[in-house]
Amino acid sequence: MRDHILFATAFALLISFSVSVALVSWAAPITAQAISLDVQKYIDGWQL
Known about the structure:
By secondary structure, the protein is an all-alpha fold. It has a domain at 21-48. Helices cover 96% and strands 0% of the residues. It contains 1 helix and no strands. The longest helix has 46 residues, at 2-47. The termini are far apart.
């Protein structure tokens, strides 16, 4: 019974880890694009 709980915990950790990796790999380009746009706006505003 204890091994079963251990296996379920490891499986849940693996699922949450893979989901977080998928979220990061999906959100990273969007976040990087948004940050670069903000930096560009900041630089443009600073030049004016």
